[in-house]
Amino acid sequence: MDNGKTMIKKVNHRKSIKEFWNEQSKRQRKIIYMLLGIIGITIITILICILLIFGNPILCQTEYCQTAANQIRNFIDESQEPCDDFYRFACGMFTRNFSNERYDIQSVRHLMQEDIQLDIKKMLQEAPDNTDNPTFNLAKKFYKTCMNEKAIEQQGLRKIEKIFKEIGGWPILEGPDWDSEKFDFIKAVRILRNNGINTDFFFNISVEVDREKLDRYILVIHDKFYSPAEVSPNSKKDFLDYMIDVASQFDATNANLWKDQNDVLELMLLLAKISKESNKSNQTNLYNLHTLPELQHEYPTIPWFEYIQSIFGTHVTLHFDDIVSVSEPIYLKKLETVLRNTEKRILANFIGWQTVQNLINFLPSKILDKAYAFLSKVNGKFDKTPRWRMCVEATRKVLTPAINLAYVDRYFNESMRANITQLIRNVKTEFKRTLLMSDWLDEETKRRIVKTLVSSVEKIFSVTDIVDILEENTAYDDVEINENKLLEAVLHLDFISMNIHYSLIRKPVLDQWVKTQEFLSGLNIQYSPIENKLKFPLGLLRGIYYNDNRPDYMNYGLFGTVLAHQISHIFIEAKAYHVEEPTSNRQRLYSWWTPLSLSRYIDKLECVSNQYSRYEIRELNNIRTNVLITRDEDVADLAGLKVAYAAYSEQEWRYGRQPTLPDLKYTPKQLFWISSALQFCSKYSTRYIRDKYSSNRYHHSPNEIRVNGPLRNLEEFAYDFGCHKDSYMNPEKKCSVW
Question: Which of 141, 561, 701, 708 lies 20 to 30 Å (CA to CA) from residue 617?
Fold first, then answer.
């Protein structure tokens, strides 16, 4: 108390940090240390991530990045604004550097396939090596034999003339001395097949997997497509002159040569006509199963058992209960009438002519040059195929698996395959996330699609494939090639190839993808809905499409967009297979769209169709693509870009910003968009474009539209390039699918 007033003193109960710390037990102090450490590490990690993602990226200066930068500089035209016309910006230099004076088309895809051919040429030119597979050394020797043009000229026509004599002669050469009584069609087929000559003169018989019973092979009969069914009088005269010129090189003294060859040409045009008519009216979905007795009853003109056994050769025995599918029954019915009404002489001449055509690349120049002269005359401009290219293609045809195996050995390794597989799975994961977040798909449709996506298999190549090829290659162990006798070498290797193919009818079903030419040089991912399998060609895993040693934005922009495009087709086409009977391999196709999801999808499709219908083909005034034909591909282009970009962005978020390329001012995400466009850079002649799109049969929009069309619908692209609203590449109205 003081002067009657009470003084209240504020007491400070706050403890100092030191007092607080002294009151803590040893265990409590340890916990505090740990919490502070975790908080500190978290803050540092966040700061590092921010710096990696939003800070200045590192510059990549490796040899591979220099190469990648040079590739991009050879494509882009920096005088063009990306937001005004991205195709002209991304492909301007490419289109400027190529002309169509010699070729109707110049494109990245064509250049990629050319590079693959050059790779194979380089491999085949190497000296035989004991470390290589023996069959690949055989391929090298065959290529060398094919390139020996001097020996081809010296050999002349002796071998093929000898074969003609074995089948009773080629009437065109023998004139009136030819004896029709000595000609027997089945016997001729047997002799030609035993000589290694393909005998699919009137139809083709192949061994294929039964599409409804996947665990067995069946025989399939296809029509023989001769084109065109109708020709102008001038074209007909030119081709007939060519046929007569070729026959004359065999020293034919036949006074009726013109009539004989004209009869052959008329038969060829008739076969083309019935093939065209059959394809128009075929309503049987190319799947009509018969046993051999049923086939004989349905098409009695041809002795089927004898004919098929003749093409099987002595390596496979035909059974009466073997299953045969007739893919074009109307063609076969009409063919019976043609064969019944055609004289033996015409049939024999037709077989002789087709045999010459099949083997023309391996005959002397006096024959081959006639073919080039004809092609040059009818096409206006035609460059003679370089001999090396012809020989590479011939070697691939007869020894495809051995070359594929050698190519894998030279250019691929397990590390590369693991990285590619991871990229594939990242894109699939992003697709799954996109599907699950889609608000227009109902839950049932999502469940079906995601189930198919998650269970899909990636097929690149495997140890099993390699073992299978090595086992198959043993069929060539005893083959000897005489480097002075090319035609004999061709026929011997063709004979073995046919034996291998027809022997499949008695073997368990295995995936043959890695043994095909498409596996090595194809640039399209194949999807098998029956197997739910994505099959990847090696062509997409090299060159501009993929490189293990360059930044990921290029791989996602090129290979990733192709992959996402193909995956989107699985959903756009809405098809999947399911096992019809649990105890069998019989499968049926079904659609997974529910009515509600399908209705919503059609609404989205309409947006894309309406937008693309306004795009004109630049080379052709007032001509537009048919959006009813191209719209599924247009939607796949849009989906592929969106998903691949999201997959790359996820990788950037996880692992940090990728290094940029030397002497290029673009960010990693801008380089993703630039990379995505490179695959479509092309230069077409006006004639080529007009022929391609005036027919309304081509399913892809022109490449310029395939670049600009999807990008104009993606906010991410506009943001990364800073395109202002209502610029050409950033319109206000956009379409969205996924």
Answer: 561
Q: Is 2 exposed, middle or buried (0-12, 13-18, 19+ CB in 10 A)?
A: exposed
Q: What is the CATH number of domain 199-362?
A: 1.10.1380.10
Please state which of the ranges 8-17, 126-135, 582-591 shows the lowest mean pLDDT: 582-591
Question: Both tokens of residue 440?
Answer: 């227009």
Beta-carbon neighbour count of residue 402 at 10 Å? 26
Strand ranges, E, within 391-463: 457-459
> Which segments of the chain belong to CATH 3.40.390.10?
1-97+426-438+448-457+547-573+602-738
The per-residue pLDDT for range 180-214, each reduced to its tens digit, is 988 999 999 999 999 999 999 999 999 999 988 88
pLDDT band at residue 498, thresholds of 50, 70 and 90?
very high
Give the span between the Cα atoms of 360 and 374, in whole angstroms.
13
**pLDDT tens digit sequence for 349-396:** 999 999 999 999 999 999 999 988 888 887 766 678 899 999 999 999
572 sits in which H/E element: helix 561-572
* Peptide bond preceding 228 in cis form (omega within 30 of 0): yes
Helices and strands: H and E segment counts in the chain: 31, 11
Q: How far is CA 444 from CA 282, 447, 575, 593, 738, in A?
A: 35, 5, 15, 9, 16
Instruction: Spell out where 614-704 has E strands.
Output: 682-684
Please, are residues 269 and 231 in contact by the beta-carbon 8 Å criterion? yes
Location of each CATH 1.10.1380.10 domain in the chain: 199-362
437: number of Cβ within 10 Å: 10
**Any residues with CB less than 8 A from the CB of 16 and at least 6 apart, and which?**
none
Q: Among residues 362, 326, 349, which one has the least CA distance to residue 258? A: 349
Give tens-digit pLDDT for 648-701.
Answer: 999 999 888 899 999 999 999 999 999 999 999 998 877 777 777 666 667 888
Other CB atoms closer than 10 Å to residue 7's CB: what's the count?
A: 7
Distances (CA, A) of 48 to 36, 384, 710, 720: 18, 60, 34, 22
**Residue 352 burial (C-beta neighbours within 10 Å; 0-12, 13-18, 19+):** buried
d(CA 308, CA 189): 10
- Packing angle of the helix pair 304-312, 185-194 (nearest 10 deg): 10
Residues 603 and 609: their CA atoms lie apart, in Å, by 10
Instruction: Please report, as a single letter, which amino acid is at residue 255.
Output: A
Amino acid 57: pLDDT: 65
Asked if the 1-97+426-438+448-457+547-573+602-738 domain carries CATH number 3.40.50.170, the reply is no
Q: Beta-carbon neighbour count of residue 127 at 10 Å?
A: 8
**The dihedral sign for the CA sequence 517, 420, 120, 101:** positive
- In angstroms, the CA 691 to CA 100 distance is 15
